């Protein structure tokens, strides 16, 4: 179970960590707890997978690469086989099963703009299923924050 | 764009930042750099947008946000910028994008991700979006996630 301090930590840690020599001490000060407690709570939250990852969020596009949301309509009896083939590509960063005929939705992150088409082509060859591509045209908000 | 040293930094950090009092010093040591040089590099990558932020990725499911709906809408192209900005500003919308349609099967061009503690809560929030879009939205759907199949974030390939 999460207590009030855990929730305050989760809310704060979804915002940017400062680029200072002791960034956790800075945040612990703001939260009014000792640095060691912040670190041990973070370790526990990560260990319990309440936090799936802690670190920099990279933007592949700003590195000269690209991101693309993709979708496939995978027959139920082939789902696990196709999933193994799709997930084997390191370019596939996130993948979700969803309630639709297009039932597999994944984000590709590649180091070059051409990487999207190359990876999509490879997945189509390996699975025999079309990979629909939905690159972002406009981004309206990048919040991600979830109130804990 | 990134140079060879940025790339090394990204490779070390893509798995995450260590949870220690001086995390950048530890990473710098791994890279054979000094901490100040690493902090300068990271600040530059932030200013160029290569790093969006250094933060925690929460697990929605563990926070009781067990229902995740990708709401999709077919909004008139002339209105999508204005309406997308309004939808993106809603506090319960975590991501909002205009994306290309894939006709004829996929007429939707506006995507807004909504999380809730159950589907009823997501449907309430979806109804709020629907009310804002009104007749500008010609078709709509919602795709609930039923399973996380992979979640690793960006992974650079090792360069040979």
UniProtKB/TrEMBL annotation, chain A:
SMART domains from the entry?
A: HTH_ASNC (SM00344)
Which reaction is this enzyme known to catalyze? siroheme + 2 H(+) = 12,18-didecarboxysiroheme + 2 CO2
What region holds the Siroheme decarboxylase NirL-like HTH domain?
A: 6-51
Instruction: State the Pfam families in the record.
Output: AsnC_trans_reg2, NirdL-like_HTH
**InterPro entries linked to this entry:** AsnC_trans_reg2 (IPR040523), HTH-Siroheme_Decarb (IPR050684), NirdL-like_HTH (IPR053953), Tscrpt_reg_AsnC-like (IPR019888), WH-like_DNA-bd_sf (IPR036388), WH_DNA-bd_sf (IPR036390)
Keyword Magnesium among UniProt keywords: no
Lineage: superkingdom: Bacteria
Q: In which pathway does it act?
A: Porphyrin-containing compound metabolism
Its Gene Ontology molecular function terms? lyase activity
Q: Where is the Siroheme decarboxylase AsnC-like ligand binding domain?
A: 68-140
Per UniProt, which keywords does this protein have? Lyase
- UniProt entry tagged with the keyword Lyase: yes
SUPFAM superfamilies, per database record = Winged helix' DNA-binding domain (SSF46785)
For this protein, the Enzyme Commission number is 4.1.1.111
Identify which top EC class this enzyme belongs to.
Answer: lyase
The similarity annotation says: Belongs to the Ahb/Nir family.
Q: What is this protein called?
A: Siroheme decarboxylase NirG subunit
* Species this protein is from: Ruegeria meonggei
From TrEMBL, chain B:
Looking at the keywords, is Lyase present?
A: yes
Reaction(s) this enzyme catalyzes, per UniProt = siroheme + 2 H(+) = 12,18-didecarboxysiroheme + 2 CO2
- Pinpoint the Siroheme decarboxylase AsnC-like ligand binding domain residues: 62-150
Uppermost EC category: lyase
Residue span(s) of domain Siroheme decarboxylase NirL-like HTH: 6-52
Q: What are the recorded GO MF terms, alphabetically?
A: lyase activity
The cross-references to InterPro entries, in alphabetical order and at most eight, read:
AsnC_trans_reg2, HTH-Siroheme_Decarb, NirdL-like_HTH, Tscrpt_reg_AsnC-like, WH_DNA-bd_sf
Q: Does the keyword Lipoprotein apply?
A: no
Q: Which domain of life is it from?
A: Bacteria
Task: Give the pathway listed in the UniProt entry for this protein.
Answer: Porphyrin-containing compound metabolism
Family according to the record = Belongs to the Ahb/Nir family.
Protein name in UniProt: siroheme decarboxylase
Q: Which organism is it from?
A: Ruegeria meonggei
């Amino acid at each position: 179970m999460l207590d009030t301090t855990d929730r305050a930590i989760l809310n704060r840690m979804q915002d940017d960590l400062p680029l200072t020599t002791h960034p956790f001490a800075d945040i612990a000060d703001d939260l009014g707890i000792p640095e060691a407690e912040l670190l041990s709570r973070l370790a526990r939250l990560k260990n319990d997978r309440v936090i799936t990852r802690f670190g920099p969020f990279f933007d592949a596009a700003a590195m000269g690469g690209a991101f693309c949301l993709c979708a496939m309509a995978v027959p139920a009896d082939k789902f696990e086989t196709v999933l193994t083939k799709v997930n084997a590509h390191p370019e596939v960063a996130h993948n979700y099963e969803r309630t639709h005929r297009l039932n597999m939705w994944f984000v590709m992150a590649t180091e070059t703009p051409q990487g999207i088409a190359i990876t999509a082509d490879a997945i189509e060859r390996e699975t025999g299923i079309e990979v629909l591509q939905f690159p972002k045209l406009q981004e309206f908000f990048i919040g991600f924050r979830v109130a804990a | 764009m990134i140079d060879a040293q940025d790339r090394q930094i990204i490779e070390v950090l893509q798995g995450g930042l260590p949870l220690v009092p001086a995390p950048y010093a530890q990473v710098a040591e791994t890279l054979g750099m000094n901490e100040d040089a690493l902090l300068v590099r990271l600040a530059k990558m932030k200013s160029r947008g290569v790093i969006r932020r250094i933060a925690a990725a929460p697990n929605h499911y563990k926070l009781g946000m067990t229902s995740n709906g990708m709401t999709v809408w077919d909004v008139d192209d002339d209105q999508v910028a204005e309406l997308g900005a309004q939808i993106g500003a809603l506090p319960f919308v975590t991501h909002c994008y205009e994306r290309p349609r894939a006709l004829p099967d996929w007429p939707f061009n506006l995507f807004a991700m909504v999380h809730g503690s159950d589907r009823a809560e997501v449907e309430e929030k979806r109804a709020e979006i629907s009310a804002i879009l009104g007749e500008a939205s010609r078709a709509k759907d919602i795709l609930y996630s039923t399973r996380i199949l992979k979640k690793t974030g960006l992974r650079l390939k090792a360069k040979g």
